[in-house]
Specification:
alpha/beta, 8-stranded mixed beta sheet, 11 helices, 8 strands, globular, oxidoreductase
Length: about 325
């Protein structure tokens, strides 16, 4: 037993000594474009913290007018103030957006359309993870409602401005855990069976399928779209799981920083020549493999139609 504990201690010590080198190896790609964005308008959901905040910081540094769309306006203002001071860009603005409430989404879109004539980049970054079973204000299971349906509706409401601003891009944050996801049309709201871990996986698969179908429907408009896996990142997203919080703290030296996690979002928002890859899934700043379920065109189209029915909308 003592020998085992000694070996375990030695192994853990070795891991932590080599952690900087290991984390650097797994940090992934870096957005390499030097594109500047003066006069460009960007909306990022959930940009008051984590990956979204670092994405907003970099786009503001490049001269864009950046809208931080988030539920907690006070946290949003704090993040915006920090970004403005860091980038010397005064055009970092905060607007209320609660993706768990379609009334809030519609109000945000209406106010934004009144405020801005153009929108060049929409980054659907916000999300929830491993929530205990609950429903949104509109009666949708929370993961489905926030991670998929909320962004589906927001994109629909802002699509006119994206088309008017073409070339424009929509970036949807997904996750590698979409591999474990399944679109359970017989139980989309998780009322028959619910597992909060799998509910998150299902919603991330929905993000990839939405991106795939959106790309097909946007052909010829000058608007392109991409799904992104940011990597395993130190962020607040795991706050609903005590076990994951513990693991994230234990293995934090090996996880990506929020800045590193933002690189693929930035790549898909900015990199030149990505238009032929619209609808594809990216990780570490390059197109990568997706699960067979994420490549199923019939499922993507069915999910699209069901989402429209649930939200009471019709895409032109």
């Amino acid at each position: 037993m003592l020998v085992f504990l000694g070996l375990l201690t030695s192994f853990l010590s070795f891991l932590y000594v080599t952690a900087p080198s290991i984390r650097k190896f797994f940090a992934g790609g870096v957005c390499g474009t030097n594109m500047q964005l003066p006069g460009k308008v960007v909306v990022i959901t959930g940009a008051n913290t984590g990956i979204g905040k670092e994405t907003a910081r970099e786009l503001a540094r490049r001269g864009a007018r950046v809208y931080i769309a988030c539920r907690d306006v006070l946290k949003g203002e704090s993040a915006a103030s920090e970004i403005r001071a860091d980038t010397k860009n005064s055009q970092v603005l905060v607007r209320k957006l609660d993706l768990s409430d379609t009334k809030s989404i519609r109000a945000f879109a209406e106010d934004f359309r009144a405020e801005e004539k153009q929108l060049h980049i929409l980054i659907n970054n916000a999300g929830v993870m491993m929530c205990p079973y609950s429903k949104t204000a509109d009666g949708f299971e929370t993961h489905l409602g926030v991670n998929h349906l909320g962004h589906f509706l927001l994109t629909h409401l802002l699509l006119g401005q994206l088309k008017e601003s073409a070339p424009a891009r929509v970036v949807n944050l997904s996750s590698v855990v979409h591999l474990a996801g399944k679109i359970r049309f017989h139980d989309l709201q998780g009322e028959k069976s619910y597992n909060r871990g799998f509910a998150y996986c299902h919603s991330k698969l929905a993000n990839v399928l939405f991106t795939r179908e959106l790309a097909k429907r946007l052909q010829g408009t000058g608007v392109t779209t991409y799904a992104v896996h940011p990597g395993i990142v130190r962020s607040e997203l795991v706050r609903h799981s005590f076990l994951l919080c513990l693991l994230w703290r234990l293995f934090s030296p090996f996880l990506k920083t929020a800045r590193e996690g933002a690189q693929t979002s930035l790549h898909c928002a900015l990199a030149e020549g990505l238009e032929p890859l619209s609808g594809k899934y990216f990780s570490d700043c390059k197109k990568t493999w997706v699960s067979p379920r994420a490549r199923n065109n019939k499922t993507a189209e069915r999910l699209w139609n069901v989402s429209c029915e649930l939200l009471g909308i019709r895409w032109e």
